[in-house]
Amino acid sequence: MTATLAEGISDWPTAGFPGVRMNPDTLLPVVVNEDALETALAASVDPADRIMALLLDNQPKEAAELLAEARYKNPESFRLRIFEAEVHRATNRMDRAIQLYKQLLHEVQGSSKEAVVHQYLGRAYFVSGNALAASEAFAKALDLRVAMSADAALIYSSAVALQRARNVLELAS
Q1: Is residue 9 helix, strand or coil?
Q2: How many CB atoms lie within 10 A of CB 172?
Q3: Could you tell me which of 23, 103, 127, 134 has the fewest CB atoms within 10 Å of its CB?
Q4: Angstrom distance (rounded) from CA 99 to CA 71
Q5: Adjacent-strand bridge partners of 31
Q6: Which structural domain, as residue segments, surrounds residue 94?
Q7: Cα 80 vs. chain centroid, distance in angstroms?
Q8: Coiled-coil regions in this chain (predicted)?
């Protein structure tokens, strides 16, 4: 589950959970400190954290099973709805993931959660090969995060993702 620690990994954006960072090339989360991840998981009672860990460990079937149980108990959970789309992204059902993110985006528009959904939507677009749509989503996430004076780590994450998507676009032209 742990990524090889490359030189300069400290520059990788945090991915919102101890021991996990965003790979600036793939824009996907990776485990960089398994001990920190395991310690945080042991202290957590949130099923979304376990779902995330299963996805990081490339176990989407198990993540989907845990997600179904958790969504049954808490169908309106924002985090679980994000992870529902992430399970689709992890199983290469990009159209469904993007559709779910767009639906969620419509529901949270104008709220503090909008930037989060734009960031995840951008990642789904990027992974599916649509760097233009990814850059638009990342730019929106970045603009919203700056406007809301979000945590510097979140702003940095959006900036790195936006730059990566723009670099891919530039290379393609």
Answers
A1: helix
A2: 9
A3: 103
A4: 18
A5: 2, 20
A6: 18-172
A7: 12
A8: 80-107
